Amino acid sequence: MIAAVHAEWTKLRTVSSSAWLLLTLLALTVGFAVIATDVVKCPASCSIDTTKISLTGILLSQAAAAGLAVIFVTGEYSSGMMRTTLTAVPRRIVVLAAKAIVLSAVIAAAGVVSVLGSVLAGRIFLPGNGYTSAHGFASLSLLHGPTLRAAGGSVLYLVLIGLIALGAGLALRSAAASTCVVLALLYAVTYLGDLSLSPVWQHRIERWTPMDAGLAVQNTTAMAKQVIQPWPGLGVCAAWAAAALAIGWLMLRLRDA
Amino acid sequence: MTMTRASYQSAQQAGRDGFWQLLRSEWTKFRTVRGWTIALLAVAALTALAPIWLAGTASSNDPVTCVRGICQAEGSTIATGPAGTAVIDSFYFVHQPVASTSSITVAVSALRGNGNASQVQGFGPGRHPQLPATEPWAKAGIMIKASTRPGSAYAAVMVTGSHGVRMQYDYSHDLAGPATPAAAQWLRLTRSGDTITGQESADGSHWTTIGTAHLAGLPASAQAGMFVASPVYVQTFGDGDNSSQITTRATAAFRHLSLHGGSAGQTWTGSVIGPQAPPAGNPPPGQQIGPKTAQLQPHQGFTSRAGSYQLNGSGDIAPFVPIVDPMHVVFMATLFGLIAVIGLGTVFVTAEYRRSLIRTTLTASPRRGRILAAKSIVVGSVTFIAALAGAAIAFPIVVTKLVSSGWKPPVWPELSITSSTGLQIVLGIAATAAAAAILGLAAGTIFRRSSAAIMAVLGVLVVPLILAIVMPLSVGTWLLRLTPAAAFSLEASVPHYSQVSYACAPYHACFPLDPWPGYAVMAAWTVAALAGAIYLLRRRDA
Q: What DSSP element (H or E) covers B95?
């Protein structure tokens, strides 16, 4: 198992796109945190959740996490590397587990750095825009329980999105198809849920889709009004990841490489 | 003896290097990959089925209660206008009957806001936005109207809060006069049968015609008189769905009133036009009167002293613009087909890089710009046709489903696919698909990796839709102006009018640009991306 993990780590490390995507993940999260915390102004919108707005960048950088996972597995199929991998480690579950472990560790590491950067951006920019103690806002701090939960939860969320994309990549094998499916699931479904003409479907989408439910972990205010609470929300997202990995494993087992 | 050897020449005839050949070879590449044909069918199916599904989930909508032509929807009180569409027709009217040849003249001064009456609808942190002293579309002037029934035909000339002198008739027509009204602005309406001419003058002796209205079927005895209205002030602010609607009032002074063609013995009667004053007879049971609008009644009225009049009024005379556009929301579900289109456009070129077919392609046709042009035409055309087929199938089914769940006239149009708005939606979906495919193709050429290219295109086309909802309204509006997402304004079905202010919230699939200008933004992005792709294709080795 350790050898398999080591092999996967070597494969991920030596592909130049991995480094680029991790840099993109970092740049999108922190860059967008800077923009978002810079444009919100308190006399106009004092009702916002300052923690959540600092972590808005996750909305964009999750695409990079998904892309990393998709390329990690579909790249092996397009180059034929998968056959070598499966010859060396014939047990499919070990291959899957090793890939999931390496991917999670890498995304988590990049996620921790970018979330720290985002919280720092909020800490620097928000007080200058009127989010001060005069308006009832404390400086953003990880010592504050809900903020710590939102920040840590965001890292876990990125990992789970990566695992969903890993499962999709194993099932579909095509980089284009799996990128389209994962991004449609994240962005298009969420957007239509926001617009929905039906309160029933709006509620269903907010409660049961990976992005809406998973990002509930970032909420720190107005908890009673939320459709789903932070940890149950992340749980829904984790269920999606588990289902995607199960399908990926099944496909890996049933089909020839 | 010298041996001369003829230089080698292939027995094969030299092929023509025409653009047509290039187009044919790209079409052959597209057609012979089975996965791409399946993807194209998936595009058509998704474009048809996703909107049909979303229309099916639309909850039964019954915000409109119509009794004797008076309806109420979404907090505003509406009537049915001469064209059969929903209008707002509530104001204060001081009137008397006039014959079919008549004229009315008056000098209006001092139109000013009279404070806000009540908040009709508000979201957000409970902050009241700053009201302007006078609502920009507050109106004071003279009117000839078929009857006092809300929704009846009319023509009017007026002074407005900040849009100068206007002539308006039958709700949707709006003609501009001088931008700045005189301190005592003279106004005149002349009726000759069905034709009403509106004039304005700064001094009461030199008159300028603003426009002429034909009100078909105007009864011989119509109502003429002075009116004041002041619409609901709409402001959106902050982020998400924060908007306030506040009813306003206005006051204006009228002097030098003269009427020709009135009947002897008639006097001026003041009426609150609108649902507060139902037509003669008992108000029918179950009639919906907005609780807030009912409160306004005591604030409307008129006083007269020595030939001059002062009117207090509230309300508006304008087309009713609903906040939610159900067709637009439903056809945003074509996003699923659009994402597949982007994938298809991308792999049309990245697959060549992966299989190194690109080297053969470039050897066969070394002029690289033309290859991308041929590829764009092929992938643009096939996705255009697939999306057009899907949208055309979905359209009538979506309309039927929406109408059956209550999203219907007079408030929402029941569109036919051959109407100009129907064509705009269906052709717009197809045109957006074609541009998205070419955007994907260009990104695929730039990145050479399908996943990176797809992420980049979705990043500029789809992600802004969500960011516009999450971010403060001002930022969201700019995102939807500057990114290719502006093209989604093509799916709008509810008309907007310059004389009606409305809350344009990204939350309700409202886009700041008009349909085709929005598409022009996407086209500009596509051309720029294609230019970048051609530049890189020329510069780099395959």
A: strand B91-122
Q: How far is CA A58 from CA B63, B180, B207, B473, in A?
A: 38, 51, 64, 20
Which chain A residues have a beta carbon less than 8 Å from that of B398? none
Burial category of B245 from C-beta neighbours within 10 Å (exposed 0-12, middle 13-18, buried 19 and up): buried
CB contact A117 to B (< 8 Å): no
Minimal Cα–Cα distance from B205 to chain A, Å? 50
> Residues of A with CB below 8 A from B59's CB?
197-200
End-to-end, the C-alpha distance of chain B in Å comes to: 49
3-state secondary structure at position B360: helix
Residues of B in Cβ contact (< 8 Å) with A44: 237-238, 472
Residue B253: count other Cβ atoms within 10 Å of its Cβ. Answer: 16
Mapped onto helix, strand or coil, the DSSP state of residue B65 is: strand
Tell me the pTM: 0.87
Which residue is closest to B444 within chain A, CA to CA? A176
In this prediction, residue B120 carries a pLDDT of 46
Mutation site, B451, B478, B482, interface A, largest A CB count within 10 A: B451
CA distance B168 to A72: 64
In the predicted model, is pLDDT for residue A37 greater than 70? yes
Contact: A201, B57; criterion CB under 8 Å: yes
**pLDDT score for B67:** 54
Taking CB atoms and an 8 Å cutoff, what residues of chain A touch B450? 174-176, 179
Amino acid B242: pLDDT: 60
Q: Which of A11-15, A211-215, B211-215, B244-248 has the lowest mean pLDDT?
A: B244-248
Instruction: Inspect the interface and report whether the beta carbons of B242 and A45 lie closer than 8 Å.
Output: yes
- Residues from chain A that touch B459, judged by Cβ atoms under 8 A, are 60, 63
Residues 266-305 of B with CB under 8 A from A: none
pLDDT in tens, A192-207: 988 878 888 889 999 9
Across chain B, which has 542 residues, the per-10-residue mean pLDDT values are: 61 66 92 93 96 87 56 68 89 93 92 66 49 87 93 95 94 91 92 94 93 92 93 68 73 93 85 62 35 50 88 90 87 96 96 87 85 95 97 96 86 91 96 97 95 95 92 86 96 88 80 93 97 93 78
Percent of chain A with pLDDT over 90: 64
Average pLDDT over residues A128-150: 86
Tokens representing residue A200 in the block: 């029933």
**Which residues, 6 or more positions from B530, have their beta carbon under 8 angstroms from its beta carbon?**
B372, B376, B438, B441, B442
Eight-class DSSP state of B239: B
Q: What is the SS3 assignment for B318?
A: strand
Rounded distance between C-alpha atoms, residue B408 and residue B399, angstroms: 9
Q: Does A3 touch chain B (CB under 8 A)?
A: no
The C-alpha atoms of residue B225 and residue B92 are separated, in whole angstroms, by 10
Is-contact B92 B273, C-beta < 8 A? Answer: yes
Model ipTM?
0.93
Give yes or no for a contact between B106 and B309, defined as CB atoms under 8 angstroms apart: no
Per the DSSP assignment, residues forming a β-bridge with B89 are B317
Residue contact B339–A184, C-beta within 8 A: yes
